[in-house]
């Protein structure tokens, strides 16, 4: 080993040693650059499209959202900051028509969206560019029919969701005049986005709390409940025997009062 090192040390002072090392260094640097350039990454076209989308989203935001959420989405006294909420939150709130809304003191209700899908995507891209956050979901990513388990989803729903949304997903009342909306007729992607963003009074269910596979199972159960026929007739909100008993009692009492009035009128 020492002899080999001595032989190599003889060439350190050779007049061609410096140029040779320079050539080797240049070849190594060029090879490293070529390998790095060959690695997959966003193409120039994709970068340009994303930049255009963000620019359009900022224009829409300044026009329709900044009066409440601030010019830089920093929030205000009447609306929260949007920095870090991610594209998923924007897609849920705007895609379901909850935002924009005129009175921020009221609970946002699902209604016909003001912005179309392209405008919503632009707004989501702009807000996502401000800070990292949950990414928006598309229907292709939610293969709940294939990957979900209805029985497991029902158990998870009753454990984590039923106390607010009712055991049948019909929605229910909360404290301070708020309510949990019905889950019937809601697109699967919006249910998923609600779980990962926690809109309004709803908590955030991270992937550590409820895994992506379990989220798909919950969605599958909700869709199964949505398509379940009402074999007994009218569903009455599927809130249980209390509502059914109240309806029967009210109709029965009303019928008895009507008969009493009719008999009294006949007796005269």
Describe this structure as you would to a colleague.
The protein has 268 residues and is mainly α. A two-stranded antiparallel ribbon has the order 1-2. The mean pLDDT is 84. Helix content is 56%, strand content 1%. Among the domains are: 46-130, Cytochrome c-like domain (Cytochrome Bc1 Complex, Chain D, domain 2, Orthogonal Bundle), CATH 1.10.760.10; 139-229, Cytochrome c-like domain (Cytochrome Bc1 Complex, Chain D, domain 2), CATH 1.10.760.10. It is built from twelve helices and two strands; from the N terminus they run αααααααααββααα. It has helices spanning 2-10, 17-38, 44-64, 66-69, 86-95, 117-130, 144-147, 150-160, 162-165, 188-197, 212-226, 241-267, and strands at 172-173, 179-180.
Task: Provide a brief overview of the structure.
The protein contains 12 helices and 2 strands, in the order αααααααααββααα.
Element layout with pairings:
Elements: H1 2-10, H2 17-38, H3 44-64, H4 66-69, H5 86-95, H6 117-130, H7 144-147, H8 150-160, H9 162-165, E1 172-173, E2 179-180, H10 188-197, H11 212-226, H12 241-267
Helix pairs in contact: 3-6, 5-6, 5-10, 8-11, 10-11
């Amino acid at each position: 080993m020492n002899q080999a090192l001595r032989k190599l040390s003889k060439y350190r002072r050779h007049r061609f040693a410096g140029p040779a090392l320079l050539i080797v260094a240049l070849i190594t640097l060029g090879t490293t650059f070529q390998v790095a350039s060959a690695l997959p990454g966003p193409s120039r076209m994709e970068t340009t499209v994303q930049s255009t989308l963000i620019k359009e989203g900022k224009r829409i935001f300044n026009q329709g959202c900044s009066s409440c959420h601030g010019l830089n989405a920093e929030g205000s006294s009447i609306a929260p900051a949007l920095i870090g909420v991610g594209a998923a939150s924007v897609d849920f709130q705007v895609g379901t028509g909850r935002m924009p809304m005129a009175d921020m003191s009221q609970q946002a209700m699902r209604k016909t969206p003001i912005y179309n899908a392209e405008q919503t995507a632009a707004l989501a891209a702009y807000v996502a560019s401000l800070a990292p956050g949950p990414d928006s979901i598309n229907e292709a990513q939610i293969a709940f029919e294939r990957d979900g388990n209805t029985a497991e989803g029902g158990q998870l729903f009753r454990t984590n969701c039923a106390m607010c949304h009712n055991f049948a997903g019909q929605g229910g009342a909360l404290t301070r005049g708020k309510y949990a909306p019905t889950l019937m007729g809601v697109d699967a992607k919006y249910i998923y986005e609600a779980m990962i963003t926690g809109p309004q009074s709803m908590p955030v269910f991270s992937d550590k709390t409820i895994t992506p596979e379990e989220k798909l199972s919950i969605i599958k159960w909700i869709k199964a409940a949505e398509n379940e026929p009402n074999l007994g007739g009218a569903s009455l909100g599927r809130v249980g025997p209390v509502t059914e008993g109240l309806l029967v009692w009210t109709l029965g009492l009303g019928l008895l009062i009507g008969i009493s009035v009719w008999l009294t009128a006949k007796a005269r």
